[in-house]
Each structure stands twice: as C-alpha cells, then as structure tokens.
C-alpha cells in the first residue's frame, strides 16, 4: 500500500501558550491529541507503518503513543537534537531534512509515502489520492484545496498547468496577484527517489527548498485538487474555531464522548451538577468529576474538562476549559480557552493567573 510520515518536530510557537508545556501534536480535540486522529485516519486507509520526527517535548508524544499497537499500526520515532555542553537540546532538521535523516539511518522510505503535518484534522480519501498519484506516474504530489480568491493570502498557492503539472508556487499572494486558488494543505505523496534530492545532515525544508528543485528539474510533480475537510491549527484563534466546529458536530468522524443526558449535553463519569438550578445550552460536554454549583450558566459550544469546578453564578460562554480549571463565583468567561494557569481569548490575547492587572480570576481546581 504505502507508508506514512508525520511531521511533528516543530515547536508550535504560533499556538503558544497552548504549547508551552505540550508539543503541538498533543494539543487536545475532544479530549484526544490531534495526532491521534491522524493515526486513526491513516490506519483506516491501510497505512500501518508510520515514522514520526520529534524534537520539542518529544517524550510526551512517545509516552502517549508508544509503539502504536493500540491503533493497529507500528510507530517509529526519529529525535532531532544535539548535545550542547552536556545537555540534549532539540534542533529540528526541517521537514525534508528530517525525512532524509530517517532515510540515511535505516532506509525506511522504500515505497510510496504519504507525508502529513501533525497539526491538522483531515478526512482526505487517502486511498483515492494514492491511486491518482500512481496513475499519473508522479514522483511527488501535493494535495491542495480550492479556496475563495479573497483567502489566498493566508496560504501557499500552487500554480499548475491543465494537466496539473506544477509550474510554480506563490507564498501568501495578494488576491490581485494570485495565479491560482489552489492552497497547499501540507499533505504530500513522495516516491523514495525524491529524498535523493535532499542533502544529508542539513536543515532542509519541503516547501521552500525541495519543491523548487522538483519544478526546476521539470520532474513529474503534480497537484491534486481534492474536496475534503482540512482544519489547520496554525494559530490559537484557529484552535478556538476548530473546537467550536467540532462541538457543533460539523467535522465528520469526530463524535462527542460521554453520555448524552439531554439534547446537546454530554457528560462523563461521576459529575456533580445541580441540574435543576443551572442553565446549560448545548452543545456542551462536561467531563468526569466536574462540579457545577447552582446558578452557573454554560452556553455552548463549550467543553468543560475533567476535574473542573464552576462556582455559583459563574458564566462560561462558547469557551473551552482544560482539565482541573476552577472558575470563581460570579466570574464570566466569553469565547476563551482557559487552563489552570492561563486563559486566551479567541484572538490569541493571553492572560496568566496571578496577573494583578487582569480583571478575570480563575485557578486550579486541585488546589
């Protein structure tokens, strides 16, 4: 069939503070790391041998996913780092450089390989994409989506001829200057020979360095224009938007956990909720061991992580509460992501617990 490669070595600086203590592939969606959905999707399409390059906070990825057997796949990890004055420090090799490092080590990429970034949710028909790649005799393929002309400046744009042979790329062009509306999704299909173009032991990027080589040498390099759900989590604002869509049930194959006790309201185990004295408007998920006191209002879409505590009169509107978050009495959180240590609004503005200038107060429910 094919092999898989998940790019997971990035630091995720654009989604801080979510990635301050958590690698980006581990950012949770409905209580599961985003990378878990990718592994499940690869397995559904028969891709069961998957390499993952890792760097920042790599142990959290490796400890959670292990050898992959829980999902019916085999996972391998390639750590990218250096020893500096006795310390082991992460130092990513770039998307292409990381793959070449894996190839130099053990020759893993000996057949067609699907390459994915670890920070997006997709429902791509992988089987059909691989078949089109083979039918065209492609050395490399880029999976793209048509976007509205006014949105091209947010993406890397692929320019191709009538046969979908790639001629050039435009990085976030102005709408008036865009030669195409095909946005690269960061999903690629490579034949093993592609990695021969990548220099060994160098930081090397797929988009900015490898792809121009393929174009310049006029190799069989194609774009696939496919219709599928591609939800990128590039910024904190994207994460908030993704959770809102998922909670509203707009993303296929992502079902609300827990038990639905009334329309639009799901709960985990052992919750303590004064049901006849609270106002909850779904869709809302309430995790296990959550305590919700009388007088609380929750307006969905909202996610209340396990172990959280909402005090009397608290209001949570279209927000995500990570596990063990305490909301004090009569405090209101509107369209926010809240953890025990920080809260971020939908635009990415961050407040930290203990900031005396902040009007909001919240805390750790374990304290």
Task: Please describe the structure with a list of short key phrases separated by commas or semicolons.
17% helix; nine-stranded mixed sheet; 367 residues; alpha/beta; globular
Report on the structure:
The chain is of the alpha/beta class and 367 residues long. It has six helices and 32 strands. It has helices at 34-44, 58-65, 95-106, 126-135, 206-216, 236-247, and strands spanning 3-8, 28-29, 32-33, 49-54, 74-79, 81-84, 87-90, 113-117, 120-122, 140-146, 156-160, 166-171, 182-190, 221-225, 230-232, 259-262, 265-267, 272-273, 279-281, 284-286, 291-292, 297-299, 302-304, 309-310, 315-317, 320-321, 325-327, 332-334, 336-338, 342-345, 350-352, 363-364. The strands form seven sheets. Strands 1, 4, 5, 8, 10, 11, 12, 13 and 14 form a nine-stranded mixed β-sheet that branches. Strands 16-17-20-23-26-29-30-31 form an eight-stranded mixed β-sheet. The mean pLDDT is 90.
Rg over alpha carbons: 22 Å
Structural class: alpha/beta
| Average residue-wise pLDDT | 90
Helix content: 10-25%
C-alpha termini separation = 51 Å
What is the β-strand count? 32
Residue share in β-strands: 25-35%
- Overall shape: it is globular
- The number of helices is 6
Low-confidence stretches: none
The largest β sheet comes out as: 9 strands, mixed
Please describe the topology of this protein.
Layout: E1 3-8, E2 28-29, E3 32-33, H1 34-44, E4 49-54, H2 58-65, E5 74-79, E6 81-84, E7 87-90, H3 95-106, E8 113-117, E9 120-122, H4 126-135, E10 140-146, E11 156-160, E12 166-171, E13 182-190, H5 206-216, E14 221-225, E15 230-232, H6 236-247, E16 259-262, E17 265-267, E18 272-273, E19 279-281, E20 284-286, E21 291-292, E22 297-299, E23 302-304, E24 309-310, E25 315-317, E26 320-321, E27 325-327, E28 332-334, E29 336-338, E30 342-345, E31 350-352, E32 363-364
Parallel strand pairs: 1-4, 1-8, 4-5, 10-14, 17-20, 18-21, 19-22, 20-23, 21-24, 22-25, 23-26, 24-27, 25-28, 26-29
Antiparallel strand pairs: 2-3, 6-7, 8-13, 9-15, 10-13, 11-12, 11-13, 16-17, 27-32, 29-30, 30-31
């Amino acid at each position: 069939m094919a092999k898989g490669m998940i790019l997971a070595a990035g630091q995720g600086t654009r989604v801080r503070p979510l990635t301050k203590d958590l690698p980006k592939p581990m950012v949770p969606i409905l209580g599961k790391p985003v990378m878990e959905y990718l592994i499940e999707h690869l397995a559904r399409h028969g891709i069961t041998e998957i390499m993952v390059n890792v760097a920042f906070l790599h142990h959290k990825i490796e400890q959670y996913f292990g050898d992959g057997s829980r999902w019916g796949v085999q996972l391998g990890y390639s750590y990218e780092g250096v020893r500096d004055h006795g310390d082991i420090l992460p130092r990513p090799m770039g998307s292409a450089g990381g793959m070449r490092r894996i190839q130099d080590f053990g020759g893993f990429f000996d057949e067609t390989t699907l390459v994915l970034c670890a920070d997006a949710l997709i429902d791509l028909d992988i089987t059909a994409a691989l078949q089109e790649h083979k039918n065209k005799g492609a050395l490399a393929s880029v999976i793209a989506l048509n976007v509205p002309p006014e949105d091209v400046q947010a993406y890397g744009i692929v320019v191709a001829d009538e046969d979908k042979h790639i001629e050039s790329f435009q990085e976030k062009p102005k709408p008036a200057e865009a030669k195409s509306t095909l946005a690269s999704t960061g999903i690629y299909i490579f034949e093993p020979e592609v990695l021969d173009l990548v220099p060994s032991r160098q930081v090397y990027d797929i988009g900015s360095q490898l792809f121009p080589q393929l174009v310049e040498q006029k190799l069989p390099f194609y774009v696939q224009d496919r219709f599928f759900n591609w939800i990128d989590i590039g910024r904190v604002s994207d994460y908030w938007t993704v959770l809102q869509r998922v909670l509203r049930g707009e993303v296929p194959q992502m079902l609300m956990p827990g038990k639905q006790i009334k329309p639009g309201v799901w709960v985990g185990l052992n919750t303590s909720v004064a049901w006849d004295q609270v106002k909850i408007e779904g869709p809302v998920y309430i995790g296990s061991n959550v305590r919700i006191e009388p007088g609380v209002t929750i307006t969905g879409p909202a996610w209340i992580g396990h172990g959280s505590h909402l005090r009397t009169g608290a209001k949570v509107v279209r927000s995500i509460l990570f596990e063990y978050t305490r909301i004090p009495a009569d405090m209101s959180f509107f369209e926010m992501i809240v953890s025990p240590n920080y809260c971020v609004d939908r635009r990415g503005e961050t407040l930290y617990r203990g900031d005396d200038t902040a009007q909001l107060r919240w805390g750790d429910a374990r304290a």
